[in-house]
Amino acid sequence: MAGEIWVLVEQWRGRVSDVTYEVLALGREVSAATGASLQAVLLGSDVKDLLPTLGAADGVLVTEHPTLGEPVSEIWALALAQLVERHQPLVLLIPQTNVTMEIGSLLATRLRLPFVNFCRDIQVTDKRLVARCLLYGGKVEATVAPQTPAVLGVLPGVRPQEQGRAERTPTVTAISLDLPAEPPVRFKGYTEPPPGDVDITRENILVAVGRGIQRPENVALAEELAAALGGAVCGSRPVIDQGWLPPSRQVGTSGMIVKPQLYLALGISGAPEHVQGMKDAALIIAINTDPRAPIFSVAHYGAVVDALEVLPVLTEIARSRRRVA
Amino acid sequence: MLNIMVLVKLVPDVVEELEIASDGRSLDPASVRLILNERDEHALEEALLLKERHGGTVTVVALDVPEVDDVLFTALAKGADRAVKISGVEAGLSTWAIAGALAKALTSSGLVPVDLILTGVQAIDDLDGQTGPIVARLLELPYVGMVCRVEVDVEAHKAVVIREYAGGVTGTFEVSLPAVLGIQSAEKPPRYVPVAKVRAAMKTQQLESVPVPGQGESSSVEILQMAKLEVTGGAVMLEGSPEEIAERIWDLLKERGLV
Ligand SMILES: Cc1cc2nc3c(=O)[nH]c(=O)nc-3n(C[C@H](O)[C@H](O)[C@H](O)COP(=O)(O)OP(=O)(O)OC[C@H]3O[C@@H](n4cnc5c(N)ncnc54)[C@H](O)[C@@H]3O)c2cc1C
């Protein structure tokens, strides 16, 4: 196996995202197994300040260009295509988030390279790259072997981020690229979210509802429980998509990352995009009618039961006993 | 006037208990019930909203797989103008193969160019890529993903789209048309259509069929093994009646001083 191990640095709004360090830690292992060097690939318009944070890599390939300032996937993929063609790495690992989502597919299609999505681990076995991928909302794992060179999209949480952090200035190689000044996709600006009624990242107790809550009227039952416990209600994406709760209450990769003292998950399956937003809660109790729901893999306590039957009883207990206490 | 195409894909309903086939590398088809990818449902809704705003047509395109007729008639009942099945592909799990077949068939049949192609940003079985960006590249059109709002300036032939990031932050992008957009959420919850209307569509409307010319694409990602994920991590399971479970939860909260 020839060629370097590359990790795309997810750099967004002036900072290197934590997931980058997780993927660098994984890249370190792949590099050890193949004997190839680990290179971080840093794209942006003015990113030199970020270099010292990438010490876990042997080297950093940096391309600065005015149109790379924001992660417009079209342009990032174009830049990466030029870099990959020129330097022929063995693999490019891309942290997969809402920022970088489609870069892998765009790049792989440009270069006709294999792309593997949803990687939760990557190993080198018998000189082959073998990836384990989460499919079907976290219910099935596929073990796959792409031909190399390959582009791999890596899910957040693949390794502890501390393993990918090192205070050391790596060898820097600046590469200039010829990129279009007027690309077909143009960045116009960011908008901060309107302040919500409740900041769920600051709540100690969260009652979280998923599609299993079934109707908007039942969300009101969850509100009653949250009120009785002194917490707030939040939800999974489908609940927000249905308009049953405002966007400020969404937990997950495209919502909020929460770390409450209690996360009571009612009728939430535990898809990877949801779990990434709540897995670090101090106490997770999950109620789901499906004994195989992936949420039980992150929960501390679980119950296979209809959430709608437990909900009113728990509210009643909380109301009567809290009053007494 | 806007001519919009929506590419949709059917995926296994994970509410069903999925089983692995005897080859150990695929799902047992007997355990699979196919439903419309949830994000594609949002893409269709966004297309219908844009048509209501600007006039024009919505054409829905899917590979010819079991259950696809129901999905396409439902789309027609919701207000799509045309529904097209792409036939002659054994794509399996490869999104690369599916997107490759779609791109070929769209070009050869003259279904493109259109002003906008919408598709769900991702599906739960997108093992080797997402449909939107692959089709966009193969048709050499620009792509933006994670889109939750689309404003089209028909005169200027461009769209302003809102992309969703984490924590409620959004980004605004301008894209020249024609373009492919990966929809994360429509501006409104996908509309509901009564079964009677779907039945009426089945009686009065027709699905079109377009074959894929020549050889299909195959994936360069080999599946070695597929396994159901067991619940791990050792959650302590609470047993009993709903009342007993509620009591146990209350005790847990008390033990930890949370209430
Ligand atoms: C790019 C992208 C970003 C995403 N970002 C997010 C995100 O930020 N947050 C997020 O949550 N999702 C996100 N998603 C969606 C995610 O993939 C899942 O679709 C979603 O999390 C599923 O929500 P759910 O668990 O409520 O619904 P489902 O997966 O449908 O699960 C419902 C569960 O309820 C159970 N149930 C049904 N009835 C009952 C009952 N009476 N009592 C108890 N249990 C019951 C079922 O067994 C099932 O497990 C994203 C998806 C994409 C593609």
SSE blueprint and pairings:
The complex is a heterodimer of chains A (325) and B (259).
Chain A: E1 5-8, E2 11-12, E3 15-16, H1 18-34, E4 38-44, E5 59-64, H2 73-87, E6 91-95, H3 103-111, E7 115-125, E8 128-135, E9 140-146, E10 150-154, E11 171-174, E12 185-191, E13 205-209, H4 216-229, E14 232-235, H5 237-241, E15 262-266, H6 272-275, E16 284-287, E17 301-303, H7 307-324
Parallel strand pairs in A: 1-4, 1-6, 4-5, 5-11, 6-10, 7-10, 13-14, 13-15, 15-16, 16-17
Antiparallel strand pairs in A: 2-3, 7-8, 8-9
Chain B: E1 2-8, E2 10-12, E3 34-36, H1 38-54, E4 56-63, H2 68-78, E5 82-87, H3 95-109, E6 116-120, H4 131-138, E7 143-153, E8 158-164, E9 170-176, E10 179-183, H5 195-204, E11 208-211, E12 221-228, E13 236-237, H6 242-255
Parallel strand pairs in B: 1-4, 1-6, 4-5, 5-11, 6-10, 7-10
Antiparallel strand pairs in B: 2-3, 7-8, 8-9
The complex binds flavin-adenine dinucleotide.
Could you please describe the fold and organization of this structure?
The complex is a heterodimer of chains A (325) and B (259). Chain A is 25% helix and 27% strand. Chain A contains seven helices and 17 strands. Chain A has helices at 18-34, 73-87, 103-111, 216-229, 237-241, 272-275, 307-324; strands at residues 5-8, 11-12, 15-16, 38-44, 59-64, 91-95, 115-125, 128-135, 140-146, 150-154, 171-174, 185-191, 205-209, 232-235, 262-266, 284-287, 301-303. Chain B has 259 residues and is α/β, with parallel strands linked by helices. Chain B has one domain (2-211): Rossmann fold (3-Layer(aba) Sandwich). Chain B has helices at residues 38-54, 68-78, 95-109, 131-138, 195-204, 242-255, and strands at residues 2-8, 10-12, 34-36, 56-63, 82-87, 116-120, 143-153, 158-164, 170-176, 179-183, 208-211, 221-228, 236-237. In chain B, strand 8 (158-164) and strand 9 form a beta hairpin. In chain B, helix 2 (68-78) packs across helix 5 (195-204). The mean pLDDT of chain B is 95. The chains are: A alpha/beta (325), B alpha/beta (259). Chains A and B meet through helix 3, strand 7, strand 8, strand 9 and strand 12 of A and helix 4, strand 7, strand 8, strand 9 and strand 12 of B.
